[in-house]
């Protein structure tokens, strides 16, 4: 206000400029506080408050009616002895490695192949992006159709003489998880490719040319010249993939609901089953807390990365 | 993407004979054409199932080449499967959700990026962190909160939840974008006596149009494709969005694969259209979050 006038005296020559710009910015108008506080309140109420509640619920036994009974660490102790929880935890690890590994390998390979402008590249790229716009439920249903005993997967296998391999992919406890995984990777590859294509744009082409002149093979150039320059993208892809893996719910729910015999159960689906199908709210919350604890390291990685480039 | 051929001849110092790149071009297409066909084969297969008749599928199997053409799958899915209503529910939730989220996020981003709010960096990262949380940690309390507010099992609850959970990410992206707007533009407006509301509405928002378009394309597919929030706050089938309705359809029409396939195709169409219409925005939307 008036006090700002005393500070002024910057090289303002002309007519009475009462406010110095920086000072005007420093004083936050009331309406601007409102701009910030409304969205912040929404997020606090619908994200942070529920998240805190999950922690406190995880120390209780509660079926949703009446008062929650405090049981201390019992839920966590029970988790350790719960064979389905152990299956779900193991499957989540398999899922994270398989889903992340395969989609990164394929996505990166495709990005490298489709990086240079050439005839047809646009079409190839679009075709590979396309699955990622489908919901995981749609993807799941697509692949359920494909995996039917007389569906496309088995008829293709039989057509190329691999009759012995064909089976009921989703009904077989040995294959259900991997069958779902393939469907999820199919959808994810496009996204990973987009991330790497952007990363490759930042790679200095003259370095690669120099290496080519020096006689480096295509693989050597990729391994020693291009890949090291992708470190930033790799961090993002890594964090995003792990966070996504731990969240994975829709596609498993749509294809197997964690079955048969809990063979494709992930922590996320088991949490949902406990919390909403069986209404063990305390136990379900404990599983949710475990998922959170697994995710938090990667969330921090992503956040650190997000701040660094700002 | 179509204009890519015009950019071509920047590299390639002409050292080797020209036959080598051309041969490699052949190899490239020889690998990519089958690969791409394999990639789209699942979609093509489901599409043919959707247009086959039930009798044809029952008699000759799912894997057989189609000998019939029928729209029965679609009509059944739309009428008995209530896919039409579910699509309308999804459209409503998505439209309102995207507009409200982007509006609120842009307000927060404007405040954080253009004013000296104390701890603004912490606030921003806190908001982003909220969006990165696994939804599982929120599900049970969110269901309980909607119940105690009396909005459980309503589309309103679904919209509110979607808005709350999405806000952090969009705020973060828009913050980055708004930071890039040069200060001079705003100073000029300030000198002219424009208040924060006018600066936001008349200057910042129009300049943010590319970022908003990218985020809108992204948010549309995210909200439209969501399942987990829908099954958390909704119970009545009338209110289900398309994802939840599809799962019901699958349960209700077991082994009527033409109906299930038709439902899946109907559910896939809107996002596929958004994708093809806004491919550039969509791709830049995906990047905008990851590149920061």
UniProtKB/TrEMBL annotation, chain A:
It is found in: Cell membrane. One of its GO terms (cellular component) is plasma membrane. InterPro entries: ABC_transporter_permease, MetI-like, MetI-like_sf. It holds the Pfam family BPD_transp_1. Keywords: Cell membrane, Membrane, Transmembrane, Transmembrane helix, Transport. Residues 1-13 have a biased composition (Polar residues). The chain crosses the membrane at residues 28-49, 93-114, 126-146, 176-198, 281-304. The keyword RNA-binding does not apply. The lineage of its organism: Bacteria, Bacillati, Actinomycetota, Actinomycetes, Jiangellales. It is a multi-pass membrane protein. It comes from Phytoactinopolyspora halotolerans. Residues 89-304 form the ABC transmembrane type-1 domain. This is Sugar ABC transporter permease. Belongs to the binding-protein-dependent transport system permease family. CDD domains: TM_PBP2. Residues 1-21 are annotated as: Disordered.
TrEMBL record, chain B:
One of its GO terms (biological process) is transmembrane transport. Residues 1-10 have a biased composition (Low complexity). Its main location: membrane. The chain crosses the membrane at residues 26-51, 91-112, 124-143, 155-178, 199-224, 257-278. Residues 87-278 form the ABC transmembrane type-1 domain. One of its GO terms (cellular component) is plasma membrane. Keywords: Cell membrane, Membrane, Transmembrane, Transmembrane helix, Transport. It comes from the Bacteria. InterPro entries: MetI-like, MetI-like_sf. The keyword Secreted does not apply. This is Carbohydrate ABC transporter permease. It comes from Phytoactinopolyspora halotolerans.
């Amino acid at each position: 206000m008036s006090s700002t006038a005393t500070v002024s005296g910057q090289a303002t020559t002309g007519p009475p400029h009462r406010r110095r710009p920086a000072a005007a910015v420093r004083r936050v108008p009331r309406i601007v506080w409102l701009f910030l506080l409304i969205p912040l309140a929404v997020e606090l109420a619908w994200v942070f408050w529920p998240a805190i509640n999950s922690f406190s619920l995880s120390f209780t036994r509660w079926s949703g009616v009446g008062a929650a009974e405090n049981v201390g660490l019992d839920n966590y102790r029970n988790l350790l002895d719960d064979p389905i929880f152990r299956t779900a935890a193991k499957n989540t690890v398999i899922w994270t490695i398989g889903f992340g590994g395969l989609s990164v390998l394929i996505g990166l390979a495709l990005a490298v192949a489709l990086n240079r402008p050439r005839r047809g590249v646009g079409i190839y790229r679009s075709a590979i992006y396309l699955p990622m716009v489908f919901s995981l439920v749609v993807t799941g249903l697509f692949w359920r159709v494909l995996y039917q005993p007389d569906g496309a997967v088995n008829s293709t296998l039989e057509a190329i003489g691999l009759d012995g391999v064909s089976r009921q992919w989703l009904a077989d406890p040995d294959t259900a998880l991997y069958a779902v995984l393939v469907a999820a990777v199919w959808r994810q590859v496009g996204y990973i490719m987009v991330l790497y294509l952007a990363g490759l744009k930042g790679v200095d082409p003259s370095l690669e040319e120099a290496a080519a002149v020096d006689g480096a093979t295509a693989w050597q150039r990729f391994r020693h010249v291009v890949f090291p320059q992708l470190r930033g993208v790799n961090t993002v892809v890594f964090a995003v993939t792990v966070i996504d893996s731990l969240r994975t719910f829709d596609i498993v729910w749509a294809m197997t609901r964690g079955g048969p015999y809990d063979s494709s159960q992930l922590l996320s689906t088991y949490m949902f089953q406990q919390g909403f199908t069986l209404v063990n709210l305390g136990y379900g919350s404990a599983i949710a807390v475990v998922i959170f604890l697994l995710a938090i390291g990667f969330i921090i990685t992503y956040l650190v990365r997000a701040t660094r480039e700002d | 993407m179509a204009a890519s051929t015009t950019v071509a001849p920047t590299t390639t110092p002409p050292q080797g004979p020209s036959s080598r790149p051309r041969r490699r071009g052949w190899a490239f297409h020889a690998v990519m054409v089958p690969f791409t066909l394999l990639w789209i084969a699942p979609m093509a297969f489901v599409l043919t199932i959707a247009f086959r008749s039930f009798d044809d599928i029952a008699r000759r199997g799912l894997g057989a080449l189609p000998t019939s053409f029928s729209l029965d799958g679609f009509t059944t899915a739309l009428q008995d499967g209530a896919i039409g209503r579910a699509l309308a529910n999804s459209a409503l939730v998505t439209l309102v959700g995207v507009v409200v989220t982007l509006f609120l996020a842009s307000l927060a981003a404007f405040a954080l990026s253009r004013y000296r709010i104390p701890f603004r960096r912490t606030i921003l990262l806190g908001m982003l962190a909220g969006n990165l949380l696994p939804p599982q940690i929120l599900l049970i309390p969110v269901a309980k909160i909607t119940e105690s507010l009396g909005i459980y099992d309503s589309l309103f609850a679904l919209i509110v939840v979607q808005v709350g959970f999405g806000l952090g990410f969009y705020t973060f992206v828009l913050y980055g974008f708004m930071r890039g707007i040069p200060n001079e533009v705003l100073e000029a407006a300030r000198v002219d006596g424009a208040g924060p509301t006018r600066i936001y509405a008349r200057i910042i928002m129009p300049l943010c149009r590319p970022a908003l378009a990218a985020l809108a394309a992204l948010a549309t597919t995210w909200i439209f494709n969501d399942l987990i929030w829908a099954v958390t706050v909704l119970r009545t089938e009338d209110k289900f969005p398309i994802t939840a309705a599809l799962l019901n359809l699958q349960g209700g029409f077991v082994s009527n694969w033409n109906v299930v396939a038709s439902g899946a195709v109907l559910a896939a169409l809107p996002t596929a259209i958004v994708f093809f219409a806004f491919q550039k925005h969509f791709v830049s939307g995906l990047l905008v979050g990851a590149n920061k």
